Structures are given as C-alpha cells and as structure tokens.
Amino acid sequence: MQSKEGLIIAALGGVNEIGKNMYVFQYNDDIVVIDCGSKFPDESLLGIDLIIPDVSYLLDNQDKVRALVVTHGHEDHIGGIPYLLKQIQMPIYASRLTLGLIEIKLREHGLLRETKMTRIDANSTIELGAMTCSFFNTNHSIPDCLGVVMDTPEGTIVHTGDFKFDLTPANKQYPDLHRMSDIGKKGVYLLLSESTNAERPGFTPSEQLVGVHIEEAFNQAKQRVFISTFASNVNRLQQIVDAAVRTNRKICLLGRSMVNVVQVATELGYLTVPDGMILEPNEAAKLHPERMAVLCTGSQGEPMAALARLSNGSHRQMKIDAGDTVIIAASPIPGNERDVSRIIDNLYAMGAHIIYGSQSDLHVSGHGSQEELKLMLTLMKPKYFIPVHGEFRMLHQHRILAEAVGVRREHIFILNNGDVVESKNGVVRQFGQIQAGQILVDGLGIGDIGNIVLRDRRQLSADGILIIVITLSKTESKLISGPDTISRGFVYVRDSEELIEEVNQIVIATVNKMLEEHITQWNVMKKTLKDSLGQFLYSRTKRRPIILPIIIEV
Amino acid sequence: MQSKEGLIIAALGGVNEIGKNMYVFQYNDDIVVIDCGSKFPDESLLGIDLIIPDVSYLLDNQDKVRALVVTHGHEDHIGGIPYLLKQIQMPIYASRLTLGLIEIKLREHGLLRETKMTRIDANSTIELGAMTCSFFNTNHSIPDCLGVVMDTPEGTIVHTGDFKFDLTPANKQYPDLHRMSDIGKKGVYLLLSESTNAERPGFTPSEQLVGVHIEEAFNQAKQRVFISTFASNVNRLQQIVDAAVRTNRKICLLGRSMVNVVQVATELGYLTVPDGMILEPNEAAKLHPERMAVLCTGSQGEPMAALARLSNGSHRQMKIDAGDTVIIAASPIPGNERDVSRIIDNLYAMGAHIIYGSQSDLHVSGHGSQEELKLMLTLMKPKYFIPVHGEFRMLHQHRILAEAVGVRREHIFILNNGDVVESKNGVVRQFGQIQAGQILVDGLGIGDIGNIVLRDRRQLSADGILIIVITLSKTESKLISGPDTISRGFVYVRDSEELIEEVNQIVIATVNKMLEEHITQWNVMKKTLKDSLGQFLYSRTKRRPIILPIIIEV
C-alpha cells in the first residue's frame, strides 16, 4: 500500500489471535510502532519454533519509522524485537524492567550495542514526529506496565497495553485510576484496549490472593516444595520468595528463564531476595527437605522444561521423592492441557502431593475480566474503539461490552491483521489493507518454510513416505535393477513383506507397460507410478503416503 | 501370565487413561469381560485413527471366556468390539439401546450374523460359569446404562459403569437408589467405580437444566438455529426435539453419526419425534429461517464434521447466514479447545450469534462429581475399592474420596492397565501382570504401526526428509551420476539452491574420499554420509531432517 495522508492505524499482529502483538500508528510521514511480539505455533505448524509478524510495511517505509514503544516485557510483546531489528534499526522506548528483558534478547542476538534504548515511565513525554506520546501506569502479571497516550493532529489515541485493575497489587504498583480519569475527561478520540478475558464475567481476583494460598501450602508441606509458575510473573516470584522466608525454607531455581528473570529482576530492584536465600541444586540437596523450596519453569507442561523433566525422572540435578509437594501456580493456556495433565499423572505415580487446578486458588489471571474492561472503557469514554489483543470471539465479546457502556456500534472496528483504520478530518473509517502475516521461524530459518513444505510435513506426519527406486537402461529401454522400496513413517517394511512385494509387482508391470508403449518421459512415468501405487495403497491400507519414484537412467 | 487359581481382576484398558475401557474378571476357568472400548489418539500418535485394547490375554485363554457384558453404548465402552470379535467369538450381553448401537458397528464390519447377542435389563440374572451377574439402573449422558453386580465365590463385586445421580432425568430413567442400597446392605466385597469427575467438587447438575436453556435460546433466535452436541446424548437430542416442537421449528440433521443415532434411537423408542418433523436439507432450505433448527455433529471441533464445515463455508448442503444462531451444547474435551475456538472465531466472522462456553448452561457433564462418587461409595460400603475409568490424577482423587467415606487406604488399589488384583480366601492383594497395551489402528492396518514408524513420523513432521541419490560405477569405483537431492518437508528446494549446492559438494567430497580409501560397503558409506550431512545441516539450519542416502551401483 502506498503511504497515505492523515492518520492510519493497523495491526501487524495481535488481532484474530493471542500473540505477536504489533500495532502501527502513522500520521503522514511519521510512524510509531507499539510492541513487537512473537507467538508459539499451534499443532498444525509442524516443526515450527516461533511465529513473528511480517514487517514488510515498515521495510517499505523505513525512513518514516520514528520509534518502537513497548508496553511491557512479555514474549507476545517483545519476542519479535530481535528479528525486527535485524531488518530495520529503530530506537526503542520502554520502562525499566521491560528494557532489562529486551536487553537479554538483544545480547543473545548480538544486537545490544547498535540499538538505541531509552527508559520511560509514567512521567515521560516523547515527541515522535507529528505524534506526542505519554504514558500511564497499569498493572498486569509483570511489573512496569504502561498504557500509551498518543496525541495526534486528529485527536488523542490511547493504547491500553495488557492490564487488569488489581487494586491491592502484591508489588504496590497501582493502576493510576486518576490519571486515566483525566485522560478520559480531556477526551479520547480512539481507544485500543486488550480483549484476552472479554469472555470472562466479573472482576479478576487480586494477585495477593495467590500469596496467601502459597504461604498456606508452604506451611502444610512436610517435605520439599516444588512450585512452578511463569518466570515473567515477577510479582508471584516475590510472593513465593516471601512465603519461603516466612516458612524458613531456602530456594533453589531450576530452568534457564527462571534463573534469567530472577537475576534481572533482582538487579533492577523488582525482586527482593535476602542474601544467601538462593542455593545451587547441589547445596540445596544437603538441606533437610522441610527447609527447601524449588522454584521451577514448566508450568505449561513444556516437555523440555524443568517440571516435565522432574515428573519423568530425567532432570539431571534433582529428583522428586514420595511425600514432596508440587504446586502448579498457573492455569494451562488452551492447547496445553494435555501436557500439563500428563505431568500431574506422572507426579502422582511418584507419590507426590500435588496442588493444581482451578480449585486451588494458586493462580489468578493477569488480564482484566468483563467488569474491568467496562471500567477502562468508562474511564476513557472513547469516541471510536478498536478491541485488540484477542481472537475474534474475544474481540466480538469486547465489542458487546463497549456497546453496553455507550460506544456506538458503528464506531467500533473489529479488524484483522493488516486492516487499516484511517482518520481524516474527524471522520474515521476502515479502508484498505497493508501487508501483514505470519513469518515462521524454524531453527535458524526465518520465513523459509512455506505452505508446500508444511503440506508435505502434514502428509508425512500422517502417513509417511514410500520411495521407489528403479534403474533403467537408456540404450535398451528396459528395467535393469529395482524396484527397491524404502518406507519411512508408512509401514515397517520388515513386517509388511507381502504388501511391499505387491508394490514391487505393480511397479514392474507399470514400468514395463510404459516402456512397451515407448513412454519414456520421466514426468509421465513418475506420475503414472504415483497414481497406480496411490490407488493400490489406499485401497489396501486406507493410507496416503507421499509416493516418491526415483528413476535412474544408465 | 499363566491362568491362576481364585479370583483375579485386571483392566485391559481404562485406567491411567480416559478411553478404551475393558475389564477382566476371572474365577478359575471362567472369564467375564466388561466393556470393550476404543479411544482417540492424542497428538503424539501421528496419523493414527483409533486405539483399541490389546486382548492377547483373552486370546491365550479363549476357552475360558464366557461373555462380554457391556454397561452402555458410548465409544469408549463399545468401540473396540468389532476388533475383538474378529479375533475371538463370545456372546454379548447388553441393554436394548446399547445392543442397537453395537449392531450398527457389527453390521459395518460384517460381523452381525455370527454374533450371539442377548438383551438384558435391571431384572436380568445371568449365570456365567462360577460367576452370576445381575444389574442395576444408573444414569449418564446416554439412556439404558447399567451397573453390574457379580456374585463370585470370593464375594460380591460391583462395577458401576459410567454414572451420575441425575434425580430429575430428562428421560425419566432414574438411578435405582433403593436397589443400590440393598446391594450395599448385603455386602460388597470389592467395588470398581468410575473416576472421570473425581477432580470436580460438588454435584453435577441435572440434564433438565440444559433443556430449559435450549428452549430459551430457541425462543430468542430470530433466524435459523444450528445446535451441535454429542450424537450419543439421546436425552439431549430429545430435549432439542422438544424445544423445536414448542418453538414451531422443523429439524434438519447434519452428520452421519447424528443421522445414525437418531434413526436407531427412534426405532427403539428412546427418542420421540413427531411425524414430518425431520426434513432433508433441500426441503428445509425452503422454510422460513425462523421455522428451522439444524442438529449437527462436530461439537468437539472435529475438522471433518458438520459444524467445522459450516464454519468455514465448505458444507455442501447448507450455509450459515449472518444473524443465524449457533449453539454449541457441549464442553470441549481437553485437547479439543483450539479446534472448537477456531470454529467460534470463524462463526463470528460470518456474523452468526453464538452461544457457547461454560457460562451458557447449555451443557452438563454425564459423570458424577465428588459428592456423587461419595454417594456411590457410601451406598455400596465396599471392603475393597478399585477406582477405574480415569487418568492417574483422577484415580488418586477418587482414592482420597473413598478414604474420606471410610474405605481403608490399604484396601484401595490404584492400577495400571494389566496390573492384577487377586483374591484368595478373603485376602485381596495386587500381584503380577497380564499383557495389556494399546493397539493402534491406522486406516485398515491394526497393530502394524509400531514405535519405529511413529518415531519416523515425528521426525518427518518436525523437519522432513532429505533424499540423496548417487550412482556409482561398480567396475571403476567412481561416482558416475548424482548427487540428486530431493527434499520433502525440509526446505523448498527452489528457495534453497545455495544450501542444496553445499549439500551436493559435501556428498561428492565424502564419497570420493571413501572411494579413495576403498571403503565401498554401502552401510558404511550411508552412515558416513548421514553423519556428515546431519552435522552440516544442523549447524546451518538447526533442523534434523531424516537423511536418506540412496546408492545405486551399476
């Protein structure tokens, strides 16, 4: 899309999905980007490690990009930053902890030196071309979250970032209701607000509730306590540390991201850990079991993380004993239920005492529920509204909430990634698209896996591959060796001799017939072989392996 | 395991899992089997269609098998029957509807004629060698459910089947509390009770609740209503039919299992549908949208079922219009959440009004919650207890409930499939194993997919396959053609010319070096090629495709 006049707003990621949030705000020749997240693939994207936004629009308009403003330090808001910066340099603005977490990533990718990073807080004002950004404090399951206020020539735009209204936050970082009220009073032209919990009625409970229950569980545990939660939930880590202090336990950390976050958060002052509190696993092993708590990654059932390894006895540094207590202080994100359940089953088989599930009060969401979304809408009183950060059904539920508090239906835009909302002379409408999409990261490859490769992977995963090798004589036009049949993921050849023998007979008959008819174009031969074998195998096995004839001419 | 003296009990399926229930009860030379279910594979079993129990133990003891008693007609209790009967003939005892549903399967597999089937009900008593079976009425999400009482020389064994205590059942099939009380009063030696909802506090709501909300939703819908639920939940189908009658709508059925179940249940009198109520899709299309309800399969998000096809516009017979109402009257079974969510997102994009989720009161479980499990345990007062029908964590929770109502902990056995509990002279203990396991069905293949094939499918699905074809001259010991490189699911060759060129160079260098060193054993050559290419590709791409060198000698 050619660059336009006036104000335009679009998502490069974050709508019609949970993950890879990235929003573009452009006024004539100035572009401000909010967030650049990544997302984990679902089970249909076989072999893919990570998904990042397609930033072609920014590449085409590099000279206009003024800044990347980051609302907070979660992966779905910062995970795409290294990949973005490898393509376009731009200054980054973020709060203190957020910057600390971004730095870890930039260091890993060798990008730390060349990137200009500026710390901001709720008192900052930054001029970014035609747009002026200021910020307000919100709270969420990580400290130092900011909402963004952008003053543009068309009016004031507010982007909430992720938020809840935790009025008794564990870390005393209160949501700044008065500031939000003032912003709303001055007049918000357009609001973008997050929709994660738009389907959930009521008000999300305070994080403090979790702290009470963690301490209770620590008190009752007769031996070691293993507790698993999101490493990035620094407030919860603090409550776990506090519970350990009060119940006279030392702490041991398992899992790379847990070690990383505890280090950064402690250095920056977001986590207060008494000296000598954290022990290495080998030191911790010497303690009496009742004096020890283990804080570990893997609360989503990730197969390579600490909790999964502990649950199948494959962790190198630690074993779970019968009578130990295991606390899973997180809810499984949809799609992860089976992995988490498998871990719990294994832990039961080990004789552990396990505290998990929605009845346990050991997890609260970091996202505001319906009443909180209505509260934000009421405070901001926006003229126009774009629900963001959610799958379609969440955006639609959020629309219904907005209508209920007085936003006019025709002033609400439910977008797909790439859809453009433009504002010109006070008239807002949805019009046109910019390029947006998902770039797949597989190992070191970025964007090199396309639909053909994924389609092959799907067929391979369901029915495998059958390779047929034959050698033809160029001069005599006859089969001189083969067929040799190789199966991977289709059948185990040694157990299927009869089937393979029939396959060979079909190949010989098909090839001889074609040679008799002087059909020697390879493409035709291969296609004929594929078709006849495909039909035969489906009728005999109801499976459709990839059939790959290899013809050697000598 | 050699056959034993005394009473033995084992699960061939159904413990440490949800699905493929099958329990074996043996007294000396008499074996009674309860249920023979199937189970759907999880995402790790790539390409597998169905899982059935390993019945080797029954094959080894064919002459002793007296009967298969079936508690109710759900797939996880009857889905394995055709595969069992293909190996061993045995008479089947089941209630009327259950037999009707089993007959559909046996007809499909051409087994109907040769199978002896006997209808039983709560008044039946059947002598099966040393064991006498009688039955009691329970209720669940399908009509005609029975619990089984087995009088054995060691004492009375009770197997509950699946149950809840719905005291206001939609179909008036009440759980027979007085009968259960009498059985308990006479003395139950050993109870096997189902554990599906052992993690859920409270009492499962009555199915009638759902009926009220369905009618309400039908009343409010301005256009057509699409409603999706489990086809086997005949009671709910009846409530949907009733709601349609009362709101003056005709019904159209979409999906093979929905058509099958409605036909069988109507024929057998479990479902009452007024004449002319059910229309074919083409007739239904002529009705005013407000006069029409569509009952369809696919409430679990199954990609090939009616609801999924409707949601992506690919159903051949019907389309959803903006303003239509879609009701999903089922909860997603763990693992299906993403598929269901995707459907809801698509339906929103179509402009449908959607009623779904736990807030909607349009689904209740068919399994009793904790208070109901305690009620069953209290009624039966068993001396010994085996929690069945559940994953480990559910069995453990059920154990805790049993202890709470007075069963001694050392009298409770948490088993894995194949574990044997034996009773001799009034002493019960867990001792030894019989063969048990999962047989994978893939297309027409039963048990022919083993670990090697699955491991290949996993590697293929994640990173694909790279095939290298080279032709060597036997006489001159040199490379005469190739390497030809074929990728499926690894990289798209046309986009990766440079990488493939490097692969070819490595192959040529490796082969020439080996030929120079007179290494000509194919196995050694192949392994060397695999190793050097594997290392190179991992370092360059962080991927591990299957590498398959094919060497042709001419």
UniProtKB/TrEMBL annotation, chains A, B:
| GO molecular function annotations of the record | 5'-3' RNA exonuclease activity; RNA binding; RNA endonuclease activity; zinc ion binding
Q: Where is the Metallo-beta-lactamase domain?
A: 19-213
One Pfam family linked to the record: RMMBL
Q: Using the UniProt record, give the first listed, main subcellular location.
A: cytoplasm
Which SMART domains does the record match to this protein?
Lactamase_B (SM00849)
- Give an example GO biological process: rRNA processing
Q: Where in the cell is it found?
A: Cytoplasm
Annotated Gene Ontology cellular component terms: cytoplasm
Which reaction is catalysed here?
A: 3',5'-cyclic UMP + H2O = UMP + H(+); 3',5'-cyclic CMP + H2O = CMP + H(+)
What does the record's cofactor remark say about binding? Binds 2 Zn(2+) ions per subunit. It is not clear if Zn(2+) or Mg(2+) is physiologically important.
Name its co-factor(s): Zn(2+); Ca(2+)
What the entry lists under InterPro entries is as follows: Metallo-B-lactamas, RibonucZ/Hydroxyglut_hydro, RMMBL, RNase_J, RNase_J_2, RNase_J_b_CASP, RNase_J_bac, RNase_J_C
Could you say which residues bind substrate here? 231-233, 363-367
Q: What's the domain of life for this entry?
A: Bacteria
Record's keyword terms, sorted: Calcium, Cytoplasm, Endonuclease, Exonuclease, Hydrolase, Metal-binding, Nuclease, RNA-binding, rRNA processing, Zinc
The EC number(s) attached to this protein equal 3.1.-.-
Q: Where does Ca(2+) bind?
A: 47, 49, 442
Residues annotated as binding Zn(2+): 72, 74, 76-77, 140, 162, 389
Catalytic residues?
A: 194 (proton donor), 367 (proton acceptor)
> Main role?
An RNase that has 5'-3' exonuclease and possibly endonuclease activity. Involved in maturation of rRNA and in some organisms also mRNA maturation and/or decay. Counteracts the endogenous Pycsar antiviral defense system. Phosphodiesterase that enables metal-dependent hydrolysis of host cyclic nucleotide Pycsar defense signals such as cCMP and cUMP.
Subunit composition and interactions: Homodimer, may be a subunit of the RNA degradosome.
Q: Which family does it belong to?
A: Belongs to the metallo-beta-lactamase superfamily. RNA-metabolizing metallo-beta-lactamase-like family. Bacterial RNase J subfamily.
HAMAP family, per this entry?
Answer: RNase_J_bact
The protein depicted here goes by the name: Ribonuclease J
The source organism is: Paenibacillus aquistagni
